[in-house]
Amino acid sequence: MKKRTNEIKIRLTAEELADLNAKAKQSGFSREEFCRRAITGKEVKQAPSPDIPILIRDIRRAGYNVEQLLKIAESTHLIDAPQMRKVLVQTYLAADAILNAYVMKD
């Protein structure tokens, strides 16, 4: 773990400080971490709402259920397996799109 022993002092107007506080709060980071990420050029995204992890879990669960049905469909030939595979891929793509919208990449 890095030890942060160097300190800097900057002066901000009340407006600048309010803007910094608002942006840090939206990102879910402390002001210090927000500034460090901005300085190093890392992408800072808005923190997800509490509903997003639940949504991702539900989409993944639905994808798992489709995958189980797809296995049955392929073995019994009763359901259009290619169409089900397409739905499965779309389900996983939707979950990934939601996740990528909020995950911080270092």
Describe the structure.
By secondary structure, the protein is mainly α. The model has no long low-confidence stretch (mean pLDDT 81). It folds into 2 domains: 11-47, no CATH class; 51-102. Helices cover 68% and strands 0% of the residues. The chain has helices at 14-27, 31-40, 51-76, 81-102. α1 (14-27) crosses α2 (31-40) and α3 (51-76) runs antiparallel to α4.
Comma- or semicolon-separated keywords:
elongated
Map the helices and strands.
Elements: H1 14-27, H2 31-40, H3 51-76, H4 81-102
Helix pairs in contact: 1-2, 3-4
Briefly summarize what is shown.
With 106 residues, this protein is an all-alpha fold.
Tertiary shape: elongated
Taking the alpha carbons of the first and last residues, their distance comes to 16 Å
Average pLDDT, rounded to a whole number, is: 81
Taking pLDDT < 50 over at least 5 consecutive residues as the criterion, the unreliable ranges are: none
